[in-house]
Amino acid sequence: MRYLPLTPQEEKKILTACAEPSFESLTRDIPEKLRLKNLAIPEALSESEILAHIDELAKKNTANEKLCLIGQGAYDHTWPAVVDYLSTRGEFLTAYTPYQPEVSQGTLQAIFEYQSMIAELFGMEVSNASLYDGSTALVEAVLMAARLQSASSGTVILSEGIYEQSRKVLECYLAPLGFNLLTWNANKNGQLDEKNLPNTNGQNVVAVVAQSPNKWGAIEDWSTLIASAKKLNTKSVAHIAHPHALALTASPGEAGVDVASGEGQSLGIPLGFGGPYLGLFCCSKKDVRQMPGRLVGQTVDSRGRLAFCVTLSTREQHIRREKATSNICSNQSLMALRACMYLSLMGPEGMREVATLSHSAAEYVKAELRKKLRRNDLQLLEAATFNEWSILYTAEAEAKIHKLRERSTENGVLLGHLIAPPAESGYKGALALAFTERVKKDDADRVLKIFEEYL
Amino acid sequence: MSDTSATPGTWPQSTPLLKDLGISGHKGYSLPKNSFGEGAIPASLKRKEKLKFPECSELDIVRHFTRLSQLNYSIDGGFYPLGSCTMKYNPRINEVTGSHPGFARLHPFSPTETVQGAMELMWNLESLLKEISGFARVTLIPAAGAQGEYVGLQMMRAYLNDKGIKRNKILIPDSAHGTNPASAAMCGFEVVSLKSNAEGLLDKEIILKYCQDKDVAGLMLTNPNTLGLFEKEIQKICEILHDHGALVYCDGANMNAMLGVTRPGDAGVDVMHINQHKTFTTPHGGGGPGCGAVGVAEKLIPYLPTPVLEKSGDGKAFVWDTKRPKSVGHIKDFHGHFMMMIRSYTYIRELGRDGVSKVGRHAILLANYIRARLSKVYELPYNRPCMHEVVLSDKRQSKNGVKTLDIAKRLLDLGFHPPTVYFPLIVPGALMIEPTETESLSTIEQFCAAMEQIAKEAEEAGALEKYFKSSPKTLPFGKIDETRAARDLKLTWD
Predict the structure, then answer these.
(1) pLDDT band at B11, cuts 50/70/90?
(2) Which residue, of A286, A302, A336, B155, has the fewest CB within 10 Å?
């Protein structure tokens, strides 16, 4: 077996060196009853057989051949081919966490550069080396906001516009710790509205959380979040659903947000059926000691040359154990490396161009549809949007929307994702559609035709 | 600070920061023409400050990252004996299957009828992991080991709550990985630290005593433990916990030792995470992504995180089951690190029954070779056969002033990555060595020879000055000033 080089003769040599008659005597600590007698898994496949098997499984998928207009935290962007080429170099791929900095300067400098560019994109002072994904990064942001107020639980106000999966992850983590989650309803256009802030009745509010673009695609005005946090005398947490939006829209840092999280998948990471993705996390420098996750800092080596190392480790679980800022041990290093490569290849202009291409494709289809969709059971969300927008539909139209999506899938277009509408809108559901630079003019016209034919 | 720029045509010693490479007008991308217009973001919502990213040509970027990569030690470059990290070879075929376009372009919210191949792969992988570990079901959702611990503990709590039992304490041995107490705390549990006995093992009498406390919800143990020793009383320990209405979590970081040798599920463990990035060869990637499946005993199935992969009523299709009232809920976005699952699936299918059966055996044999040979010159604090890793210490060398960190940095000069150092915390000056089964005996012999050379050097008068003080000296970088990094905090290039 090519990954098991030890020969039977060498096995004997080792047993002799250990003065043991057999493997069984060497492993005598394992009770006899627990020794595995037979492992019921299939026989080995050769390289060509495994490749054929994986091909065969891949052929059972059809989504990969369709135009993907599903968003909700994962977007079908493109990336330069060199990202794949460079990030799969064995020196990056097969290195461990850079705890021995003298032999890990490649990974360390790349993370430092990643931190620098993410902080710049967010308009904030500090980024960590990444967390698992957008939703878990948001959980960590809320926990950090609470720590900044020396609170171990309390009330968290969550915008209705947070992705449904993020809301579920927040509930999963925060409820057992005794946090009370209150929903901050959007207005009928799906936007933050100060007058809708829930009544907190003197509860200790530890964070107000909003996402932009939100789940319906609306771009939020961060000043509403900041004003609301001020009013409640608490911390503001901003979640960036799509980092490309920051090339065109206001950054949380510019607005003065306290803690920010985000999902970095669109920065050169494949959709990959949901992962691995990239949790983004930023805060201000004064709060960095409460930050979760790994951090890389600049320093020098014994010869006085620029060098990097993992720093402020005393926040982390391997030193602080149960008192750590988080239990996280890994970071999404390989994904952060891809994002670092992607951002450095795109530069400021490339980021703006991708954002504009995605936004303008979305705007084109939205405007054309607005002309055609003159009916009482459907309505396009009125808010300003980036690359994703929503059609609100009534209970009467629900069956039609389901039919439309089925027909669309058959016609090679994955027509968005169904989500709950803004409660205040009075509609039954919402269909959210996302666009990227992959969508060409004829694709956009094809989508419009599907609406015309099947709705 | 001295000059950091690379000289053209020389072997890279370091490479300048990206921000110093940029030249206005350079471009590293190629995008389609815009046939839609500029769009319409209202002025009040627009970004005010222009992004200050470097502008670089593609070749600049290729050179930058190629040079950076050359400053890394890697499994591809050499032996990497980090204990508890299982730095085994990451087969390159995994990278071919793990980037297959038939999977890479799948949106996680695609209609299930359009992603049946991906779901079948997950189903197959779960079946293999169930058989290898002896658990009733395995969830593939957790992002990494630490998240696996978190969700495992959540399931334990949900199970107890469901039975009307409110308990708040988790027993954790003093030899445990730091993630264990951190995960328990994140779940809102109180951590009670357990001492190991003179043999380096958990003592069933001590556990029995602790279990008298009716607030004990469970035990988190690691098997083999972080001293590389098999908890020989594991079955009895599980029984004690169960008799007291508590549960047993096993940290599966050291699962590699057990492959084909024994199954944690058979020992009575209720829940365990599997680090697919250790045991099943998905790449470490410089710190992640991890990939942390969690196996559970029958009684914990109702509490698995959602979505749970199931077969449809007629058995013909795979579906996501999200309507599970007892589930702990959504622990992360979507369904886990799928592209990593392709890699571990590829690895297990390629090894097959005979291959997987040899993994633990070979890993254990190589670790014991190191133990037998190096315990002649280094202190072996717990003198018994080990499993897949061995823990030595600097006790003999430190008498002459040579400490574990000195040994580690000297090892770098001799061409090897050091073992895990100063862990587990219960062994002062620990050197934790894990060879893995993918190494040949001749590589292990070379490593042992280097360790023996260091032990010999450490005996000389003035050894510290002569051999250790300035190490590493043969690398592009000298000792990195970690104190300065923490004192003069600089976390971005601004």
Answers:
(1) low
(2) A286
Query: What torsion, rounded to 10 degrees, do the Cα atoms B370, B376, B379, B385 define?
Result: 50
DSSP B268-335: T--EEEEETTTTT----TTT----EEEEE-GGGGGGPPSSEEEE-TTSSSEEEE---TTS----SSTT
| Interface membership of B369 toward A (CB under 8 Å) | yes
pLDDT, average across residues B327-346:
97
CA–CA gap between residue B353 and residue A48 (Å, rounded)? 18
Contact A114, A274 (CB under 8 A): no
CB contact under 8 A, A45 and B337: no
Label the pairing between strands A205-212 and A155-159.
parallel
**Strands B247-251, B271-275: parallel, antiparallel or unpaired by DSSP?**
parallel
Beta carbons of A126 and A296 less than 8 angstroms apart: no
Main-chain dihedrals φ then ψ at residue B269, nearest 5 degrees: -65, 140
Residue B13: the pLDDT is 67
Q: Is B293 on the interface with A (CB under 8 A)?
A: no
**The pTM of the whole model exceeds 0.90:** yes
Among A125, A273, A319, the residue to mutate for chain B (most B Cβ within 10 A): A273
Among candidates A31, A62, A316 on the partner chain, residue whose Cβ is nearest the Cβ of B235:
A31
For B387-435, how does the pLDDT look when each residue is reduced to its tens digit (9 = 90+)?
999 999 999 999 999 999 999 999 999 999 999 999 999 999 999 999 9
Mean pLDDT for chain A overall:
96
Over residues B141-156, the pLDDT tens digits come to 999 999 999 999 999 9
Query: A114 Cβ partners below 8 Å, 6+ apart?
Result: A127, A129, A130, A336, A337, A339, A340, A343
